[in-house]
Structure of UBAC2 protein:
Amino acid sequence: DKAPLSKSLLLVPSAISILLTLLFQHYQKFFAYNLQAIKEDFQIWRLVCGRTICLDLKDTFCSSLLIYNFRIFERRYGSRKFSSFLLGAWMLSALFDLLLVEIAQYIFGITINSLPSGFLGPVFALFVPFYSSIPRVQVTQVLGHFSITNKTLVYILGLQLLTSGSYIWILALSGLVS
């Protein structure tokens, strides 16, 4: 309720991702986040398509659950402020993606031609206000030593998303920095 942007970010990219995975596999190449094509062939449209739709269903599921949990910020800030935050985080994380890839190539000699696709940069950027502004409420304890809070599931989903791909740490770091 009262979170139309979160609902549309939950439904539209998820539906497109499922359709691309199940029915239209031959169109997946248009949604690949191919950095080589962006830098060498100046295919800027790949930056938009590759950073919007997830091609992996596990990433789609985890990011959808995280967007559902982060809808509290749209209710708190309003749709206009929330959308401007997401747009700013999306653009800054795209810039940081390119910078981190260049830094990884310069320092470690790792050549990265493509990154995982999806709306992952802004999703990871939402962890910063989640950590700082949502209070921690203990729900229960496991084995008497480990406390389970209202934030535990969100952090587990973020960790699952972080470990789902080989270079997704670049997207996570750029989202957190943005």
Q: What stands out?
A: The first helix runs from residue 4 to 22. The chain has a mean pLDDT of 87. Residues 4-177 form one domain. The chain has one domain: 4-177.
